[in-house]
């Protein structure tokens, strides 16, 4: 058997680098989508701590009109997180079809990083810059909850990054490819 035939199914290192990058982007997008699902399902629907526009005086969750407007914006929010998750799935499966096989730690790390990034961006933009809602709009002083949400986001990013890096190194070791410096 020729060496070309023996390696025909194994991606070349440059192919692995490209597929690893795609896999990482897809996993990160999955995390953004899942982070949005957790926020929308747990905080908006189950606990009912806030909706998208509850800090806006014109859309209180205590009136039918306010709840209708908030439900519409919650739905648009859910659509955007669903799109992020679907795009992430397609990117991850595309990289896997091309031969990239990541260990579970890398996959979980990427999802946690995306979820944490979601919390950080959503928390800074919606809670602090636009002030369209807070984590708890049903309490008198929501700042502590907003800061805890940001802290959780930072912990998820850092913990996810550590898992991703250790998993990525294990993946590369299994594939006997030199370590990346990313």
What can you tell me about this protein's structure?
- The structure is a single chain.
- Helix 2 (13-46) packs antiparallel against helix 3, helix 2 packs across helix 4 and helix 4 (104-129) runs antiparallel to helix 5.
- It is built from five helices and no strands.
- 71% of the residues lie in helices and 0% in strands.
- The chain has one domain (14-173).
List the total number of helices.
5
End-to-end Cα distance = 36 Å
User: What is the domain total for the residues?
Assistant: 1
Secondary-structure element pattern, one letter each: HHHHH
User: Which sheet architecture does the biggest sheet show?
Assistant: none
Strand content: under 5%
Question: What is the gist of this entry?
Answer:
The chain is mostly helical and about 180 residues long. The protein is about 70% helix and about 0% strand.
Blueprint (SSEs and pairs):
Elements: H1 3-6, H2 13-46, H3 64-97, H4 104-129, H5 143-174
Helix pairs in contact: 2-3, 2-4, 4-5
What descriptive keywords fit this protein?
single chain, 182 residues, disordered N terminus, elongated, 5 helices, mainly alpha, 71% helix
């Amino acid at each position: 058997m020729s060496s070309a035939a023996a390696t025909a199914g194994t991606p070349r290192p440059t192919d692995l680098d490209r597929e690893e990058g795609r896999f990482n982007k897809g996993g990160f997008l999955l995390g953004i989508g899942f982070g949005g699902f957790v926020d929308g399902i747990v905080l908006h629907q189950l606990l009912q701590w806030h909706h998208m526009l509850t800090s806006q005086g014109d859309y209180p969750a205590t009136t039918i009109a306010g709840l209708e407007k908030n439900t519409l914006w919650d739905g648009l929010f859910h659509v955007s997180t669903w799109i992020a998750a679907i795009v992430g799935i397609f990117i991850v499966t595309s990289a896997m079809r091309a031969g990239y096989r990541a260990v579970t730690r890398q996959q979980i790390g990427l999802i946690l990083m995306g979820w944490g990034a979601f919390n950080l961006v959503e928390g800074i933009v919606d809670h602090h810059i636009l002030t369209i809602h807070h984590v708890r709009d049903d309490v008198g002083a929501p700042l502590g909850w907003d800061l805890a949400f940001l802290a959780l986001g930072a912990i998820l990013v850092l913990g996810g990054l550590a898992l991703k890096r250790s998993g990525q190194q294990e993946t590369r070791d299994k594939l006997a490819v030199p370590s990346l410096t990313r």
